[in-house]
Amino acid sequence: MSDARQISLPDASHESLIIDSIDRFLERDVRPYIRALEDSDTWPKDIVDRMKGLGLFGATISPDYGGLGLSASTYARIVERVSAVWMSIAGIFNAHLIMAAAIERFGTKEQKLTFLPRCASGELRGAIALTEPDCGTDLQGIRTRTHIYRDRYIVNGSKLWVSNGVHGNILVALVKTDPDMDPPHRGMSLLIIEKNAPGLEVARKLEKLGYKGIDTGEIVFDDCEVPRENLIGGIEGRGMQQILSGLELGRINVAARGCGIARACLEESLAYARTRKTFGRPICEHQSIQIKLAEMSTRLEASRLLTESAALAYDAKERCDMEAGMAKLFATETALFNATEAMRIHGAYGYSKEFNIERYYRDAPLLAIAEGTNEMQRMIIAKQLVKRHPA
Fold it and tell me: With CB atoms 3.0 to 4.6 Å apart as the test, which of 53, 64, 182, 340 could cross-link to 1 if both were Cys?
């Protein structure tokens, strides 16, 4: 698997080598073990170790820090392929790479040199800690606070739905460094917190309908001590801006995951429709099934194009919250649509664990919520439309 780690320039031939390595990894090291890992909701340690060997934890990190330096466009194609096999493992490296992107874009030189090489190798596997028990979409309502004591930040509060929160060993947390600031986002900052920090506790692993295997936890900070040099960028009050920029890549990832699930649903429905017979002929010859397949395929292709558009804007370093929001909105709704249609095409078999459809049906709803709900994406899109097209 070392061939992918040696690739630094994402041209077409290198991209092909990476994709081939990913495909071999998925068929040999992932697909045979999904059902057992899903049933037991077990964190896939062996798969994570192999992802480290492939360089996936450094996929979008610059080669200057030991990463592959892949474009968002190439990264999105990888995420689609991974998610078409098992969406959960895409989440393991996505949360990590959002964290790394925040450090790489906004961190000090010392922070980049200290953390990014270990993130790229997978020695450090990271998480983003944003959501709280009383705060999800409205991040300005967070209650986790910190104050300075001597040379340390002292953090108090809790974070929920932290992907990689249990088995990861580093996180970036959004905290209030100035709780009295108005508007609130000007008093918010990002802190890099290693899991061995005094006062940090993993309170529990959260049980979920789907998205099995990946560890999702609750983190509690009780007078948690964090070195002052771990403030991203070294200047307080910029945390909201920094994390929203990082979420652009996260939403492209979620859109690509939506494409992956939509693709898997379509491919398995096509295969089933060719072999399943009713009234003496394959069901793919029935008009009602053909209409479903046509709609599923068209929505998937549109989702891919939107995701590619957002990824290209991100690679060009353009503001792309609208493009990423459009891709995330449409692709995840397509995943939901295709999972439902696949269930209907498969009939009772789709409801059975004999087939993968029931897993896609459980996983797809998460995508409409993750990295900002689809309702919020609509608001972001509308606001940007108005801003970009003044009267």
Answer: 53
